[in-house]
Structures are given as structure tokens and as C-alpha cells.
Amino acid sequence: MSMFSVDESKCTKCGICAKVCLFGLIEPGDFGFPQIDEKKEGRCIECGHCVLFCPASANELSFMKAEGLTAAADIEMPSQDAALNLIKTRRSIRRFKKEVLPRDTFDRIFDAVSQAPTAVNRQPVRWIVTETPEKTAEAANLVLCWFREVIFSDPISPAAVLGASLIARAKEGEDAVLRGAPHLAVAVVPKEHKRPEDGVIALTYLELAAHALGVGCCWGGYFLNAARNFAPLREFLGVREDEYVCGAQMMGLPALLPARQYPARRGADISWL
Ligand SMILES: Cc1cc2nc3c(=O)[nH]c(=O)nc-3n(C[C@H](O)[C@H](O)[C@H](O)COP(=O)(O)O)c2cc1C
Questions:
Q1: Are residues 92 and 146 in the same domain?
Q2: Is the CB–ligand 1 distance for residue 228 below 6 Å?
Q3: Is residue 261 assigned to a domain?
Q4: How far is the CA of 235 from the centre of ligand 1 (A)?
Q5: From the CB of 53, is ligand 1 less than 6 Å away?
Q6: Which domain holds residue 42?
Q7: Which of 150, 180, 193, 235 has the smallest set of CB atoms within 10 Å of its CB?
Q8: With b meaning 16 or more CB within 10 Å and e meaning fewer, what string describes 84-103?
Q9: Which residues are registered as beta bridge partners of 116?
Q10: Which pTM was predicted?
């Protein structure tokens, strides 16, 4: 049985399903109704657009049943300005409350993250999330251990100078690596996927979805260097040999929020052609 089915009583043969199919797999079949040749089904990337864009709600896929879908018109959308303000007011948060985030909050954030685009819809991102402030602090400590190795092996490198300052701040009781965040979300993809940007896009979705729910984030740049280079940290995280670490976000409730917006920025550097 074909993975693509058409309710002939609803289909108007408008051809939109064929127009939105990435690989042009949909063609007119018996009596002009759309169909996918079974020999071509293996090329379907399961994006679902043939179903989502059908104005008559006539199409179904074996993995995307009509009853599970929400009508686009029923989805509440923010005003244009509100949507842009959400994006523009996202700031890196560097002071976090200690309390852990409820699992329901993570579920809502990752539900939004799962709608991020990925190359050929592969959805390759695996997440590693620390559940407790103690686990997050362990990760921060391992980053400092990596910096100690860097200082030992190359004491005059910029990384060693940075590491020395992070270690000094840790001795004063300040976590300048993961900022005392209760959680850390790390995105990894299989190395063979060759599209690490999928993980970076997902991390960006995560940061914006978190902001929408009042959860603060900050990219973990120091952490990322260590996670890519330091075996004990990779082992702690459970990152496999065949996985590439795309990036990480600290997560938690903000202890401090900006009282004013927006910071001065260089305007977009655009070359119009
Ligand atoms: C790839 C990347 C790595 C970053 N690493 C860190 C980091 O390790 N620690 C930190 O406090 N901020 C880090 N940041 C946050 C930047 O400093 C911040 O985005 C920038 O200063 C602009 O501020 P805003 O995010 O509040 O707009 C990182 C940001 C990016 C995109």
C-alpha cells in the first residue's frame, strides 16, 4: 500500500501537493488524482508538506494522519511587532536562580525545538541535558580540568591565559564557565551527517523558545572547546566517538534581567546583488 493516500471526495486536483514536494515525487495518477510511484517512495524525506499545504485537507501520509494535525488557522499567532520583540529582547543570561526547571518546561521548549529545520529533514540532533545543578557544576569543573591541561601543555597560549583567569575566578567561588546555571543542554549530531549547522540552528531555536517561557540561556563557548577536545568531559556527557558536539546552552531562570533594551549593534552587513 502506498504511503501517500488521497481522499478523492475532497481532492480538487489543484496540484499544490506536487508543487511543494521537494523532490517532485508527486505526479498525477488515475483520473488526475495525485499519487507517489511506489518505486520513488524511498526518496521521500517525510517533510509532510504534501499534507500540510493541501488546501482541501485531502491528503494523508502513513506516518502523518489527518486527525493528528492542527488547522493553521486555529493557531494563535503574536502580532508582527510582538514576534520581533521576542527575538530582539533575547539576551545572554549570566546570573541564574538555583532552582531546577520543571520537566514540563523542558517538554515545551523541546517541542518547539523539534520544529527547527534540518538538512533533508534528517532530524539528527541528540540532546544531552543536565538534570541537576550538581551535574551542571561537574561539567563546569571538567572544563576547568581541561584548561589545567592546556596551561600545562601550552602555558603562553591565549587559551591558557583565559583558563588561568577562569580557574582564579573559580577559586573565588565564581563559576565563570557555566555561570552557575542549573542546567546545560548540549546538542550533538552524528559525524557522518556532515551538517553540524543543524545542531546550531536547534540551539538557536532552544534559546528563543526558552526566552518565550521566561527561561534564560547563554551559549557555552568555553564549555564547547573543552567538550570537543577533552576525553573525560566527553565521557561524562556520554558523547560517542562518532558524534560531533555542535554547541551548548546554559539554562535556568534568570536571576537578573535587563531593565533596558536594545543594545547598540552594528547594522546588518548586506551586499545587495
Ligand atoms: C558561539 C557563542 C559562544 C558563546 N560563549 C559564551 C561563553 O562561553 N560565556 C558567556 O558568558 N557568553 C558566551 N556567549 C554569549 C555572547 O557573549 C553574547 O551573545 C554576546 O555578547 C551578545 O550578547 P547578547 O547575547 O546578550 O545579545 C557566546 C555566544 C555565542 C554565539
A1: yes
A2: no
A3: no
A4: 25
A5: no
A6: 4-72
A7: 235
A8: eeeeeebbebeebeeebbee
A9: none
A10: 0.95
**Closest residue by Cα to residue 94 from 223, 219, 227, 262:** 219
Residues 50 and 125 in one domain: no
Number of domains in the chain: 2
Q: How far is the CA of 217 from the centre of ligand 1 (A)?
A: 10
Strand order in the sheet with 126-129: 126-129, 183-190, 243-252, 216-219
210-266 confidence digits (pLDDT tens): 999 999 999 999 999 999 999 999 999 999 999 999 999 999 999 999 999 999 999
Backbone angles phi, psi at 166, to 5 degrees: -65, -40
Kind of pairing between the strands at 26-28 and 243-252: unpaired
- Helix, strand, coil distribution of the chain in percent, nearest 5: 45, 15, 40
Asked if residue 93 and residue 34 are part of one domain, the reply reads no
Closest ligand 1 atom to residue 222 Cα is: 8
Cβ 89 under 6 angstroms from ligand 1: no
Q: What is the CA radius of gyration of the chain?
A: 23
Q: State pLDDT tens for residues 53-99.
A: 999 999 999 999 988 899 999 999 999 999 999 999 999 999 999 99
CATH number, domain of 142, equals 3.40.109.10
Contacts of 200 (CB under 8 A, 6+ apart): 187, 246, 247
Q: Determine which residue's CA is closest to atom 13 belonging to ligand 1.
A: 219
Residues in the chain, total:
273
List pLDDT tens digits, range 10-25: 999 999 999 999 999 9
Residue whose CA lies nearest to ligand 1 atom number 31: 219
Ligand 1 centre distance from Cα of residue 31 (Å): 57
Asked if residue 148 has pLDDT above 90, the reply is yes
Half-sphere exposure in the Cβ direction for 54 (13 Å, CA): 26
